[in-house]
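Quick check before the chapter quiz. The format below is the same one you will see on the exam, so make sure you can read both the input and the output lines.
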Amino acid sequence: MSEVLIQMEGIEKRFPGVLALDECHFELRTGEVHALVGENGAGKSTLMKIIGGIYSKDAGHLYIEGQDVEVENPRMAQELGVSIVHQELNLMPHLTVAQNIFIGREPREKIPFMMDDKTANKEATRLFEKLNLELAPETKIANLTIAKQQMVEIAKALSFNAKILIMDEPTAALTDAEIEDLFTIIRQLRENGVGIIHISHRLEELKLIADRVSVMRDGRMIDTLLTEEASIDKIISLMVGRTIYESEPEIPENPSEEIVLEVRNLNRGKVLRNVSFDLKKGEIVGFAGLMGAGRTEVARAIFGADSFTSGEIHIKGKKVQIKTPKDAVAHGIGYLSEDRKRYGLTLGMDIVENTAMASMKKFLNKYIWVDFKKTTVKTKQIVESLKIKTPKITQKVKFLSGGNQQKVVIGKWLTADTDILIFDEPTRGIDVGAKSEIYKLLNDLVERGKSIIMISSELPEILRMSHRVVVMCEGRVTGVLSAKEMTQEKIMKFATMRNDVKH
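Here is the expected output.
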């Protein structure tokens, strides 16, 4: 049997009003990929942050290579051979690949404050050759795709000679081809004896890459299974404590024929090329396409976050000018960005403040002060209707799970009473149970007469939830399919099409 790299026994961690980890046990062996799964808020990241020295444990024992340790900070974790690749990449875009890898421990020239870029590039190249990575060390991070940035993060982690590599949602923003490249590297690391903890919500990946899978729920370790013996249904049942049929189609009832939004010939350089489509009342229109197709750019243009050079936007038959997000909100449009933490929420504020943020005028009294009684009542209604899990409505949103943070963003736009909602990757980084709740919520919204544009990289999600799908490639709309017409094969055909298609 392989040597045990990590042994965790009876780990507990408390935050104000929350028992985040309750008597948790976990084990990682050399040359093993051990998947860790669970709903958002189950405690996965908290458990890993204890190994990584970001949090201290309140009780229990952590053994690394048989040594009972208290990992006091991330630097100590690195010295013990632990490296973490976080879900939100931690790179500096204005620096080169090599500069990012060796930041804080840069090779120096004879003049102490001057970085020796030549040596750094040489060391980075040696590292890339070892990992069979095609990366140029002098390339700026800003010029790399998300997939390549992910590879840089892995190379940076392994440059510390890590024996233990923790990967938090490493495939969330990658295409299928990029995921296979990543898995090739993971398999190579496994063969070299590195122990890898792989956190993922994509359960179908587990059979491809993991040796064992551990399931967490509500801060507890529920079970550890051999992946080859664990069905996805079994894993989901352990995760959520209830049965969820993830693959079941859930297309809402037919919408009305009333067009609430019409976009005509939207252009912006090579990013948007004559983009036209419409959206009906009570309809979900899915936007599909490969990374860089222009889907998010369309959403940001409609919302006034980015300008466009030509084209028209009509709302309920009337041409409107939307130059800023404030204009969009005034016309009843809400936008839930794929990066909810950066653009959708103010993490240091509480749920009440975030919920009222987009519609503050509604809560001003005659003295032009905020009526906190009104904001409290409204927030309680939102928390109850969206089933947001929180100990109190004054909880800072940074302490909520990803799924609950997403619900707060939705609550913000419901409070603003927007009729057109743009969801950009609404379930990215969200577990299977929270996904199911988001899907039900989308259905509830369209039943109430709201209209939704849903951008998603997950084709099963597009097929499950859309009345129609608009497919884009290289800034163009290449196909529009009805629910009866759409299949994964047809969508991928249009997503790789280089010329406009007449429909």
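If your answer matched, good. The first strand starts at residue 4 and ends at 15.
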